[in-house]
Design brief:
mainly alpha, two-stranded parallel ribbon, 2 strands, 5 helices, single chain
Length: 154
């Protein structure tokens, strides 16, 4: 099966941010077309593209809809075939690292020093731990050939 084309709306060229979002989504679809994907994944991606192509909304809201569609497709790819864009795990673990590692470290430091004002010290430590874990997972995905040659910027 083949992944459908995304129709270009007429007003896209007038809005720079929308055009960048649109081009990023097009690059993601281009990378997916290079891969051999399961039929059910291609059907789901085509369904998302079809919904996006059929929407007739204002240019301002189009950017939000493209981002949501892109996020749904990336989550589907990660869940079904373990394909991820560049820095996917780094960005994910950056957010997870602060509450999962940073807060407990901050609480431990605060209790040891007897002053909970030191709670905030753990957050950047958790951020660094999260970035490290995510970068290692991205490296592993690259080595296994599961990384798409596109970086998603929100």
């Amino acid at each position: 099966m083949k992944i459908d084309e995304l129709y270009q709306k007429a007003d896209i060229d007038k809005n720079v941010e929308l055009k960048q979002t649109y081009l990023q989504f097009e690059k993601l679809l281009f990378e997916l077309r290079k891969r051999k994907l399961l039929d059910k994944v291609v059907i789901s991606v085509n369904k998302e593209i079809g919904e996006l192509n059929s929407t007739a909304i204002a240019v301002d809201d189009m950017r939000k809809i493209i981002k949501k569609t892109q996020t749904r497709i990336i989550n589907l790819l990660e869940k079904e075939v373990k394909l991820v864009p560049k820095n996917y795990y780094r960005n994910l673990w950056l957010v997870i690292g602060m509450p999962a590692f940073g807060l407990p470290i901050g609480v431990a430091i605060g209790s040891i020093l007897g002053n909970m004002a030191f709670l905030g010290i753990g957050l950047p430590i958790g951020l660094a731990i999260g970035i490290t874990i995510g970068s290692l997972m991205d490296k592993k995905a690259f080595e296994e050939g599961r990384q798409l040659d596109v970086e998603i910027k929100y």
